[in-house]
Amino acid sequence: MKPFLGNVLWMLASMSASQRFRRARRNPRRVQEEILATFLRGNAGSCYGQKYDYTSITSVEEFQKRVPIVTYEELEPWIRRIISGEQ
């Protein structure tokens, strides 16, 4: 494969990622809010998500107020539950 053709194929394959990056660069807060909303929806049914009621969190500020910053040691029991196969 000639280098030029390889570059074109790589560019076409990366177009979606580059478009997302340009969009995120224009409005990073909105993109971060979308990522948080996706995370909350995807984890709302987990024990941890239920503990902090992810389904009712509607903003970054609310997430910051309700979900504490924790250490690894505080997360370790949750991690062990996952390792033991708990869903």
Give a verbal description of the structure.
By secondary structure, the protein is an all-alpha fold. The protein has one domain. Helix content is 74%, strand content 0%. The chain is built from 5 helices and no strands. It has helices at 3-26, 28-43, 47-51, 60-66, 72-83. Helix 1 packs across helix 2. The chain is elongated. The protein starts with a helix and ends with a helix. The mean pLDDT is 89.
Chain-wise SSE layout:
Elements: H1 3-26, H2 28-43, H3 47-51, H4 60-66, H5 72-83
Helix pairs in contact: 1-2
Q: What is the molecular shape?
A: elongated
Largest sheet: none
H/E element string?
A: HHHHH
The total tally of domains equals 1
| Total helical segments | 5
List keywords for this structure.
mainly alpha; 5 helices
Concise synopsis of the structure shown:
The chain has 87 residues and is mainly α.
